[in-house]
Design brief:
Blueprint lengths: L1 H14 L24 E5 L11 H16 L7 E6 L5 E6 L8 H16 L2 H6 L7 H7 L4 E5 L5 E6 L1
Parallel strand pairs: 1-5, 3-4
Antiparallel strand pairs: 2-3, 4-5
Helix pairs in contact: 1-2
Length: 162
């Protein structure tokens, strides 16, 4: 069921055909509101190019679908995934339970699980039959420019997606 939902989300996000625009970088007004001060950062060089028609609507549809999928579980969501920025170009992933994403290593493990889930979908397999793309590549394909991960308490790590 979970893979089917993820497949639907990826297919819906990739099949939408609305012309898009790229957002400008602005001061981080989300720091101190959704997550603590950025404590570390990195640049991720995506292995895939952004779709020409990836836009705000497509990105919001993707994160809305991810949130809806999390709500279908028999337990409370373990993390929140949402988009911010004028063009919804900033993805944010916040741990909602103490300890679950207490370190950057655990946050990377969550990203690895999201990669595995994405790779199990037919749409992602068609895009990447060799299994080289990651969840960050999927975000790049959809036009996200950054991902901030945090435990919601002690750290925030910014990944700039190039």
């Amino acid at each position: 069921m979970r893979i089917a939902l993820f497949a639907f989300l990826i297919a819906a996000a990739l099949s939408q055909s609305v012309a898009g625009a790229s957002g400008a970088w602005a001061d981080d007004r989300h720091e101190g509101f959704y997550y603590p001060k950025i404590t570390s950062s990195e640049v991720y060089k995506a292995r895939i190019q952004k779709l020409r028609d990836s836009d705000r609507s497509r990105r919001l549809g993707f994160v809305t679908g991810m949130a809806a999928g999390a709500q279908e579980n028999a337990y409370a969501p373990q993390m929140a995934f949402f988009a911010k920025g004028r063009d919804a170009e900033k993805a944010i992933l916040i741990g909602l339970e103490d300890g679950r994403m207490a370190t950057l290593y655990r946050a990377r493990a969550v990203l690895a699980l999201l990669t595995a889930t994405a790779r199990a979908t037919p749409v992602f397999r068609d895009l990447d039959p060799d299994g080289q793309y990651t969840f960050l590549d999927l975000l790049a394909l959809l036009g996200f420019e950054e991902l901030t991960v945090s435990d919601g308490r002690s750290y925030a790590h910014r990944i700039e997606i190039k």
